[in-house]
Amino acid sequence: MRAALKHLKKDPVLAGILKQVGPCTMQYRDPTFDTLVRSIVYQQLSGRVASVIFGRLLEAVRSSGDDEELTPAGIMKLRIPRMRKLGLSGQKTLYIRELAKHTRKGNIVFESLANLPDADVIAHLTQVKGIGVWTAQMFLMFALRREDVLPVADLGIRSAMKKAWNLPDLPKPPEMEQLAASWQPWRSIACWYLWRYLDGPAEL
Fold first, then answer.
1. N or C: which end of the chain has fewer CB within 10 A?
2. What is the pLDDT of residues 32-89, one digit of tens each?
């Protein structure tokens, strides 16, 4: 982390953000099925609400069988109406079940992801309905611990750049890539600081 911070401080604007935010406390999760299910649950919800729903889902899986953790088999034991009663939307219920089906069939192999390049991880995960590039990028950053990811579709990153660099509008991907070019190979760490700068880090 020391090398990353030393490098990122070369950008004067980012150096000010690093000083304002303080030490990096980036938290990671295991690159597993339950982590990706969690990310689906958290999409477009506040952290508090999503945490409650995810807790209900985990408890439902535990009460329906022998699984202590979320597994594809545990998810498929739950009927759709029960999943909806936990607070999941119809779409998220479908997405989670699709992920479970793909994983059971061997289309998604979590154990292989650590050995794949970023682009291949994204392609592997986005074959599942409901998992887009942003979700795959969050998995890269917070589960696979890839250090040089720039999620150009993330509203928080775009808003932080607009605010910190005094831009007239939210930056588009080419402008974001240009601003972040000097941050390589530590763009994931820089993004964490930008989220904290807005006091709204992404939940995985």
1. N
2. 999 999 988 887 777 688 889 999 999 999 887 666 788 999 999 999 999 999 999 9
Range with the poorest average pLDDT among 2-6, 104-108, 118-122, 153-157: 153-157
Tell me the domain boundaries of the chain. Answer: 2-26+149-197, 33-142
User: Token digits for 160?
Assistant: 């932080």
What does the DSSP 8-state code read for residue 107? S
Its CATH architecture, for the domain 33-142, is Orthogonal Bundle (1.10)
CATH of 2-26+149-197, one of 1.20.1250.20, 1.10.10.10, 3.40.1650.10, 1.10.1670.40: 1.10.1670.40
pTM for this entry: 0.85
Cα 152 to chain centroid, rounded: 13
> Any residues with CB less than 8 A from the CB of 116 and at least 6 apart, and which?
124
Cβ contacts of 164 within 8 Å, gap of 6 or more: 13, 14, 16, 17, 194, 197
Cis amide leading into 185 (omega within 30): yes
Q: Which residue has the tokens 């992404």?
A: 202
89 touches 44 (CB < 8 A): no
